TrEMBL record:
A Gene Ontology cellular-component term: cytoplasm
Record-given protein name: NAD(P)/FAD-dependent oxidoreductase
UniProt KW keywords: FAD, Flavoprotein, Oxidoreductase
The organism of origin for this protein: Nocardioides eburneiflavus
A GO term, aspect molecular function: oxidoreductase activity, acting on NAD(P)H
PANTHER family the UniProt entry points to: APOPTOSIS-INDUCING FACTOR 1, RIESKE DOMAIN-CONTAINING PROTEIN-RELATED
FAD/NAD(P)-binding domain: residues covered: 3-279
Chain segments carrying region Disordered: 392-417
One Pfam family linked to the record: Pyr_redox_2
CC cofactor: FAD
Amino acid sequence: MRRIVVVGGSLAGHGAARVLRAQGYDGELVVVGGERHRPYDRYPLSKAYLTRSVDRAGLAIDDPPADVVWRLGERAVRLDLAGRQVVLDDRTRIGFDGLVVASGARPRDIDLVEGVQGAFVMRTIEDAETFRSSLESGTRRVVVVGGGLIGAEVAAHAVHQGHHTTMVDPSDLPTARAVGRPVAEHLQRLHEAAGVHLRNRTRMRTLDVRAGSVTGVVLDDGSRLPADVVMMATGTTPNVEWLRGSGLHASGGLACTPTLHARGSDRVVGAGDVVRVPQPLLDGEAPRVEHWASTLAHAELAAANLLAGPERARPLTALPTFGTTIHGARVRAVGFPQAADRSRVVWGSVEAGQALVALARGRQVVAVVSLAAHDHLPSLVGQLSPGTSLDDVIGTDVPLTSGQPSPKRSGPAVAGR
């Protein structure tokens, strides 16, 4: 291959470019990125970056790939697959022999907050910095719309900074899709104890904007929450518009094979938030995965398989993994908690703040979650395979931390999400 183009200048794109060079690719390598910054790590933006535990330099990604043509501040707007060209927003055409699609995803409500003072999404360095500044300029009434991981992290940060904080979520239990019901119930208790006002089973109808500044949030029941600051954390949309009409399958994300080749082209691979890959634990369903560790795994495998070709390509085996700390509670999950409809505590006590939980869809275990028990999580991860049921999962005999209640060796399966 004389030229490989990587569309996406964030973690996945950077990782793919680095691996291509590390594996001996010596042709021309072009990286197209919509932001003007060199690639940086977005993971801490809603965490350590908000608390100033990490500065801009700490977001920089180490080990930059050598001899790369960086096209930063430019966006791909069209893919001519037959002609093997990527068309940029300035109408420049870049030919390729191999293509890495790593164009990521954007906040679902980015257009809603554009130009509105006091309304934010969390995606870029600038997003995090302006939101942080708004919290540091005095006591504020903060409304967080969306109770997923980012929403929960932001709400926890805001309330601990002394702000009147409300979190609005359409589900009956925020973060349940991310960590399963048992741990989500624990996090809800922590939110309430910290002073976060929870408006579950509630949707936002619109922002209340006056003279260009947000003044509140109008809910679906017609009530209004006054607000000086609003964070929209309602999920993301994959950046696939530039792939439409190319012949690739890109509805809801770029559809890839288990080797991360795009369905329909051996010259195209995908990595990161933008791709959908069939998962054996989910009977071949192909969800998008938006976690830091998965992005790195995708980037490494996609780059290697692009060079190897489809005949020698290896399938993706790495399971999604993520971790977070909310109100001091350390949580780590492996697998697909969002798919679960049953759960079982296999070790410890969620109420005591230390537990291992297995999550299943029907009988198939699809995820395992640790609450302050990360050292013991690998024993459960090794049991995540097709055919493993909740009844098959074996916990650990390691006792709880001194002073904790005695272990709860197992509990009944609980229906519901």
